[in-house]
Design brief:
Blueprint (H helix, E strand, L loop, with lengths): L1 H47 L1 H18 L4 H49 L1 H19 L2 H17 L3 E2 H8 L3 H13 L3 E6 L2 E6 L4 H8 L4 H13 L6 H8 L3 H13 L3 E3 L8 E3 L1 H19 L1
Antiparallel strand pairs: 1-3, 2-3, 4-5
Length: about 300
């Protein structure tokens, strides 16, 4: 049931975005390679035609020497008609030389942009790997090995939801292409979901509920995580706002903002019915705190 609730809302939309990115990368790579091949072919054809041009030049020279014996008027007529034609031929040759270089430079630039983007952004690297490496691995891998690897991925994602691509790859000791290939297969078949988080791409099993996915996709961090950690140490007694502000060395206005957000999210609750109660971590807050710490620990060790 949870799978049917999660996939229409999150999985299909995210999967559509990923597949559009994969399609775009494949089109760009194909056009870049085609441009480079066309440029190289045009340069080879141009170099092969050079001997013929040399022969034609020699023939023109002999014809010119013979024309010197002709009447002076004929020579003038030939000169007047030949100069524009020579300039036009020279301009065409220059254009023919520039076009192959432009094609090769454009193709190399497109491929270089994909490589540079993959080096700095993990979600681009995953998209490039899925688009270019996965089709090759699909023909090389055996079914038995595929099932074992996918089983390992599913088990690890079930135990560590929200882990990002590089941490998952390093934790299981897999190569970039193999990891991207199997994650793409699992996501296409609806067994896992993924989403972009800044420069990273994170993964989780698709059987999670909406609430669980929401907590994973919006982990507690920064000042709010520090507030939860401080309150978790006090147990059911909780701690007053001024004491939290003093311990974390933040202003009361900033503390009031973060406590309001945590309270609206059900992460903290009042420890008593007094007018200015102490604050304590709720059960939902403890779960979110545990999940955030676990993900941070896994990614730090990967």
């Amino acid at each position: 049931m949870s799978n049917h609730l999660t996939m229409p809302v999150i999985g299909r939309a995210e999967l559509r975005i990923v597949m559009e990115g994969v399609r775009t990368v494949r089109i760009v790579a194909a056009l870049a390679v085609a441009a480079m091949l066309a440029g190289g072919w045009m340069m080879n054809v141009s170099s092969d035609n050079q001997p013929l041009d040399f022969v034609e030049d020699e023939a023109r020279g002999e014809a010119g020497a013979f024309a010197d014996t002709a009447p002076e008027e004929d020579s003038r007529e030939g000169d007047d008609g030949g100069e524009p034609e020579a300039e036009q031929n020279q301009g065409e040759e220059e254009e023919d030389d520039v076009l192959p270089e432009q094609l090769i430079a454009g193709g190399a630039g497109a491929l270089g942009s994909l490589l540079i983007g993959s080096a700095f952004f993990e979600f681009i690297k995953v998209t490039v790997l899925v688009a270019l490496v996965s089709p090759m691995l699909a023909r090389m891998k055996s079914n038995r090995e595929d099932m074992l690897t996918r089983g390992r991925l599913l088990g690890y994602l079930e135990a560590n939801p929200g882990i990002h691509f590089s941490a998952l790859r390093d934790a299981l000791g897999l190569a970039n292409g193999v990891t991207a290939y199997h994650l793409n297969f699992l996501e296409s078949s609806g067994q896992i979901i993924s989403w972009r988080d800044g420069k990273l791409r994170r993964y989780a099993i698709s059987s999670l509920t909406k609430e669980e996915v929401s907590k994973i996709r919006n982990p507690i961090s920064g000042t709010r995580l520090a507030i939860l950690e401080v309150l978790a140490d006090t147990g059911n007694l909780g701690m007053s706002g001024p004491d939290i502000s003093k311990k974390l060395q933040i202003s009361r206005q900033l503390l009031s903002h973060h406590l309001s957000e945590l309270r609206n999210g059900g992460m903290v609750e009042a420890a008593s019915e007094s007018r200015r109660p102490n604050w304590k971590v709720s059960n939902s807050g403890l779960d979110a705190l545990t999940a955030s710490k676990e993900v941070s620990r896994i990614e730090a060790g990967a």
